[in-house]
# Entry
Amino acid sequence: MAAASIEPHLNNKPVAYIHLDNIQANLDLVRSKSPGCKTMAVIKANAYGHGVELVAPALQRMDAFAVARVEEALAVRSLGVQIPVYVLQGFLDETELRHCQSSQLIPMIHSLEQWQLANSLGLQLSCWLKFDTGMHRLGLSGSEIDLVLSQPGSLVIGGIASHFANADVADHEENLQQLQLFESITGPISVERSMAGSGAILGLNASHYDWVRPGIMLYGSAASNSYDPALKPGMTLTAPILALRDLPAGESIGYGSTWQSVKTTRIAVVGIGYADGYPREIPPGTPVLINGTRCPIVGRVSMDMVMVEVPASVPARRGDRAVMFGDKLFIDDVASHIGTLGYTLMSGLTARVARVVSTVSAETFSAKKRSAESLVRQPSNDTN
# Structure
C-alpha cells in the first residue's frame, strides 16, 4: 500500500513562518556590534529549528558557517554552500575525518585523540584547536595546545577557539578568568582567535578577537541578561483553532482534570502539542495570541492539542491561526513560563511542523494576516 501524501497547503497542522529578512537583520546587527571581526554564523540543529535549507542559502555578508557535527556540515555542503564550514565538535572517527578532508570542512580539534588520529593517517587537514578555558565540556588544556602546536604533523592549524560558561552575565567573575587564560596562552601565537558567541558579542567586547560566532541571536533570541531590543524574531509559530466550545462553570478540561472553570468559559482547542515540539511541561497561564490578543493556556498540553481560554470580546473562529510564539509574543517570554530558554522551544520543533518562508516581516505578519482574514469574512454585495 502506497504511503499517503500530505499536501503542503493543508491547514490542519502547525506552521512556522520563517522570517529570513529578520534573520539577515540580526546578522547585520552582529556585524555592527563587532566591527572588524569575521563572522561565523552558527546554523547547527537545523538552523536552531528554522530549517537549514531555508536559512543557509539566504544569509549574506558572513564569512563562514559553523555546525556541531560532520553530518550537519555535509548537509550544508549539499545545499551548494562554498564558504568555509566549521565543525564545532570536530570528528569522531576516521570516517568523519575523511569526510572533513574530502568536503573541505574545518573541524575543531578538542582532544589529543583527534590530533593523533589525523596524524596517524597523514591527512593534510585544515583545522582549528578548541581550548578549554573553563567551560569543561570539550577542549584541550593549555599544555596540550602547546604540544599540538609544537608537533602539528599533517594538520594546518588556522585558529584557536574557546567558549564562555557565563557570557549571558557580562560581569560574571569567571568571564574575566577565562579571558585572561585565553589571552595568556593564545596571545603569543600567530593564529586567528575566536571566543565570542551571542552573549559575548552583545556584552563582552574584549572577547571579540578575530572571529565572532553568533548563534541564538541570529534567530531573535538571547539569554535573559544579554538581550538586545534590536533583535527580531526569526520565526512565528502558528497552529489552527480546531474547535471553539463553551465550558460550563465547574467543569474540567484535558488530561488529569488539572484545570476547572469557575464560570462559563469559551475554550479554543488549538492543533499543536508535544509531538510537534510544544512542550507538555508548559503550564496553565502561558500566553497564546488569538487574533492579536494574549489568551492563557488552560489544562495540560497533550500530544496534538492545547486548550486556550478566549474571552468573549476576542474574535475567534475555527480555522484561525493562533500564534504560539514569535511576532508580538517573544519566544523567551513563553520559555520563561517553563523555566527554560528560547533555544529549547525553537530547536525542539519536530518534523510535523511545516517551515514556510514568510513574505512579510514578523512585525507586520499578524496585521497583514488579520487584514486578509477580515476581507475574506466580509459579506459580499455581489449577487451574481
Observations:
- The chain has a mean pLDDT of 91.
- The chain has two domains: 20-220, 235-376.
